[in-house]
Amino acid sequence: MTIAARVSQRAARTVATRVQETQDMEARELPGSHILCEALVREGVDLMYGYPGGAIMPFYDALTSYPMLRHVLVRHEQAAAHAADGYARATGKVGVCVATSGPGATNLVTGLATAYMDSTPVVAITGQVARPFIGRDAFQETDVLGVTQPITKHNFLVKSIEDLADTVHEAFRLAKGGRPGPVLIDVPKDVQLGKGMYRPRASVSSIESFRAIHVPEPSPEAIARAVRLIASAQRPLIMSGHGVILSEAFEELRAFAEKTSIPIISTLLGLSALPVDHPLFLGMPGMHGPAHVNHAIGLADLIIGVGLRFDDRVTGKVSEFAPHARIIHIDIDASEMHKVKPAAVPIVADAKAALTALLEAVEPAEHADWIAEIRSWEAQENERLANATRDQEYPDPRSILDAIYEATNGDAIIVSDVGQHQMWTARFYPWKRPNSHITSGGLGTMGFSLPAAMGVKMGVPDATVWVVAGDGGIQMNIQELATLKQLGLALKVAIMNNGYLGMVRQWQQFFHNHNYSETPITGPDYPKLADAYGLSGMCITRREDVAAAVRKAMETPGTVIIDFVIEPESNVYPMVAPGSPITIMIEEPVEEVAHHD
Amino acid sequence: MTEQAAPTRAGQSDAHQDDAREHILVLFVNDRPGSVDRVVGVLRRRRANMQTLTIGRSELAEVVRITVVVDDSEVGVEQLVEQLRKVVDVRQVVNLSTAQAVARELALIKVSSTATSYSEIIELGHQFGAHPVDVTPETVTLEVTGSEEKVTKIVDLLQPYGIREIARTGCVAMTRGAADAGDSES
Domain limits at A157? Predict the structure, then answer.
């Protein structure tokens, strides 16, 4: 029997067992490792990513008694954290990852920091050396609480078996409550091994507790002030962020924008909250935002920021960001208010609750002239794009994205990595499906996409999941191809391969006098690599073959890697130099003959 | 009504830190391993301009009282308070304005003394309510309690005799009147 078949057989057994297990609410004596599993089952966990090792072995021993807790063996703990993160982003549920003490735990760090920066709910469980050894530099001992303190919402060292179940429930409450984020539970080996009384009735899971479902409501006073500002605005913009996706406020956003006729711009992590073809959707602002969006910010007299934190990649030079605009700032996290841009009206609330309240309170309005003005700049921008000087032979990043959209009818979930391809994807992919854009925004973690996509695909099995990555980032967690094969999981992987660490090379070209220091990079023969892992691969070097290759990947079962060899030195345009106002952009060069004023 | 733009944030934004002044923050923190560490971590990460930090017991057995004095603008300190409130083990953060609060610190000052200077030092200390807690043929150690300004003043005046060592506790503070610190939060 193949491993995939064994896994599915195991999954099939889960339903019956789950009912039995979750209904057993009687107090009983259990080993700590079993109490841990019981608490996870009660939290509704059905999937986790991890890697066993010395200090977490009792937990793995217990795991075989809990077949409803499906565990995926990754090839590196970093991938476990990213996969849990991807699962959480795609499903809205808490993603779970597991690692042993010491190196296992430290390997989670990049993944936890990624989840922390992007506010995604992840619970990490790490083994720790037995309590008597803590603080004595034992084998594989690391102060993982100290290491992860700045990159988790909270972390716990479980000091006694009696605290285990409550700690797990509290961790889940914290991970998904308020502004979501990662929480780590460090469990010493002897706490896992020792026996204690498990009293399910004495603890409350995050699913059952009121605190987890409590949604901060906006204050009526703040809403009233916001409505007055909105009514008097001539050139308003809605700036939509990750908070809209985290609170699934897609409909509320659309309805509010349509009632007020206010055009919408979206941060990187806010993309796909609204379809790109919506008449009010303008695009992404900031360092690589199209010119019309950045110019709109420059002229706006009101910005309604929803679920975002005015990141420096969005604002550019802060003092010149939206110089004429007053700001209504909606965020669930009070500490985001006035952090970067002072808000005229701060609204500390869940995005969905705030948009619902605003929708009810605002009067319908028209902003046809303002929108027409922005659209006229967009038309100029599009003309410039059409005349850009590009080598027509190479597969063009945009042609790859268009082909993926066509072949999937826009229903795919796109998981991008970090770099030039990420910005091209954000800019040019015609987002249609809500929450179909998954990427590492805040931390900018290369190597995120492949393991995160694994979590996305397992969280939303019916969706087609495309990874779009650069040839640098894909090599950072390439080992997960083995996990995909073992799982029998079908991801489609498009590598935009330019033989450079492209974004760094672009900065070197613009700001470091073409000094391409350590950015040329080689990679494996991807079709051969895919073959070696038991997967399928193609290499595409001509633009005319792009669409057929994407279609072929869709028809081929299992994971398929397409190595698209793109123009080596193509750049992401426009670009705002770091520290510059966003209205001053480096624009794409155009053909002389096509240029006109 | 007219909407007033809030003052700008010092440090992270383009704002000037021209309105920086001293703020006394009192934190009530769960007495759990690592909870003080988390508070100090936030102060460091958020670049608080920390003057003093005092940790001690409170009226509740399971709650530690942390008093931290920071120099920051009004908006900057509001930001910091919100960041500190996010620490799970922090129960409450109160920004005590100096007008409403009694703020004190204690200092131990070890001064070189000779047979001739001994009585002068004792007399000087006496004017500040300081009393000797240890005397050797070569040194006098004075204990003084009071405002930060008072302690600084006596230190200055003792300087000519030769100060060997100073230990200052940093500020602890409490609201004046019957209200508890926890009640003064607006």
Answer: 3-213
Same domain, A262 and A141: no
Which residue on chain B is closest to A340 by alpha carbon?
B13
Domain B102-172 matching CATH 3.30.70.1150: the answer reads yes
SS3 A321: coil
A165-197 residue pLDDT tens:
999 999 999 999 999 999 999 999 999 999 999
Instruction: Give the gap in angstroms from C-alpha A540 to the nearest C-alpha of chain B.
Output: 46
More confident site: B73 or A39: A39
> How many domains, chain A?
3
Question: Taking CB atoms and an 8 Å limit, are B82 and A334 in contact across chains?
Answer: yes
Give the CATH number of the domain where residue A179 resides: 3.40.50.970
Give catalytic status of residue A48 as yes or no: no
Q: Are strands B131-135 and B172-175 parallel, antiparallel or unpaired?
A: unpaired
A146–B37: do the CB atoms touch at under 8 Å?
A: yes
Q: What is the pLDDT of residues A84-104, one digit of tens each?
A: 999 999 999 999 999 999 999
Residue A134 and residue A141 in contact, taking contact as beta carbons nearer than 8 Å: yes
Name the catalytic one among A9, A25, A29, A139. A139
Please check whether residue A545 touches B, CB under 8 A: no
Overall CATH class of domain B21-96 = alpha beta
Give catalytic status of residue A93 as yes or no: no
A508 lies in some domain: yes
Among B150, B131, B151, B153, smallest CA distance to B142 is for B131
pLDDT at A125 over 70: yes
Q: How confident is the model at residue B167 (pLDDT cuts 50, 70, 90)?
A: very high
The CATH number that applies at residue A355 is: 3.40.50.1220
Task: Give per-residue burial for B134-173: e unless 16+ CB within 10 Å, then b.
Answer: eeeeebbbbbbebebebbeebbeebeebeeeeeebbbbbb
**Chain B residues closer than 8 Å to A338 by CB:** 6, 8-9, 75, 78-79
Contact B88 A153 (CB under 8 A): yes
Model pLDDT for residues A355-377, shown as the tens digit of each residue: 999 999 999 999 999 999 999 99
Bigger pLDDT: A314 or A216?
A314
